[in-house]
Amino acid sequence: MTAVITACPAFSQAYETAAGTKTVQQVRALGAAAEADVIAARRLFHRFPETSGNEENTQQLLSKQLSDLGIEHTCLENHGIIATIRGTAPGAYGSDGTPAHRVALRADMDALPVTEDTGAAFASENPGVMHACGHDAHMAMMLGAVRILRDVADQLVGEVRIIFQPAEEISIGALSMIEAGALEGVDAIYGAHIWSEVPAGTVSCAPGQRMANTDWFHIEIEGVSAHGSMPHKGVDAVVVGAEMVMALQVLVSRDVSPFEPVVVTVGEFHGGEARNVMAGHATLTGTVRTWSEQMRAEVPDRLEHIVSRSAHALGAKATFAFEPGNAGLANDPACAEVARQAVLDTLGAEGVADYRGTLSGEDFSEYLRLVPGVFCFVGTRNPAVGAEHPQHSCHYTIDESVLVKGSMVAAQWACRMLAGK
């Protein structure tokens, strides 16, 4: 799959004019006023994380917050939410009630099966589940943007759709929101991820490819079980699996050009049933990240070849399954430039981050296959407050001072896109 990157013609003039700049002072002031509430919301969501597909309580918490803000919204069966902020500027709507333009802002909701070890006073109260990727921050930042946009509605020539999306971590949430109509009538979309590799207080919103293709694999190994004291009587599936884990890395280290980014990670290894029984079966699952479409197309055959030859060499049998995930994420140049201008408006020149991108994946790419848009990285790295651990770590934490900055950039992007000309 390749992201469909088209220009943003309806808004291509937005960053070339003064459109949207008259709201800058309002956005900054409203952001400052909302900061305490944004931080409080992030801590609330952090206390009650839910894994992908189980976001019932998260949906309820968000719905209450939106209701308290007077924002019309619909709760979906997939646990997502679609909210609407209607602009009241002249020309915002046609005589038939259709908005002059409609842009969308998206935040994801789900957490990870990680046991938290941060010592925070607001640590997870759901054992074994943690917002270790920052989606608690995304929801809070979006609520901050909602507060701002609600109070500058008289500057919006059109409509802002707010998408709260479940199940990003298992790569199906965006597709379920699209199926529910989240992109109907949307001209452009904005998303953001709080990011541990980008300095706190800065935002990266460069054009072009920013994140990798994300695919998955599953390996079943059939050996022959035997007594642990008699290894010559069987075929140890654990030993075969261990050999495969190492052999798969040959694809990266010796089979691909060093100039071609590829990551192969085995995330699960299950084998054996008892400590004195040589395992007759083992399972490996993992992920592959690639930057180019050519390499993405070539990797499955290469991996299967390594798996089959490794199994054969050690007298075992193996089956290999490859599951395509989300395509790489690439920003529309025009929408990215509007985002850069929004960063300049709200944070100044020092707020623009220089970040090369990541081989992490994001199902936000599914939206970008259908409409132009931009995905920003909101920096949170700040060792002074302990915000230095990577996403998905049990120690992961953030610099909460960056939250309202993310809110302001998102709101200002929408303001610029709907400012009129």
What does this structure look like?
This protein has 421 residues and is α+β, with helices and mostly antiparallel strands. The protein has 2 domains: 9-211 and 329-417, Zn peptidases (Aminopeptidase); 213-326, Alpha-Beta Plaits, CATH 3.30.70.360. It has 9 helices and 15 strands. It has helices spanning 24-47, 56-68, 135-151, 173-179, 237-253, 293-313, 333-347, 365-368, 403-417, and strands spanning 72-75, 81-86, 102-108, 159-165, 188-199, 203-204, 208-211, 213-222, 226-227, 262-271, 277-278, 281-290, 317-326, 329-331, 373-381. The strands form 4 sheets. Strands 1-2-4-3-5-15-6 form a 7-stranded mixed beta sheet, sandwiched between helices. A 4-stranded antiparallel beta sheet has the order 10-12-8-13, with helices on one face. Strands 7-14 form a two-stranded antiparallel sheet. Mean pLDDT is 94; it is low at 1-7 and 12-19.
Helix share bin:
25-40%
Count of beta strands: 15
State the secondary-structure class.
Answer: alpha+beta
The CATH architecture category of the largest domain equals 3-Layer(aba) Sandwich
Strand content: 15-25%
What is the CATH topology classification name of the largest domain?
Aminopeptidase
Tally the structural domains: 2
Strands side by side in the biggest sheet: 1-2-4-3-5-15-6
Describe the largest sheet.
Answer: 7 strands, mixed
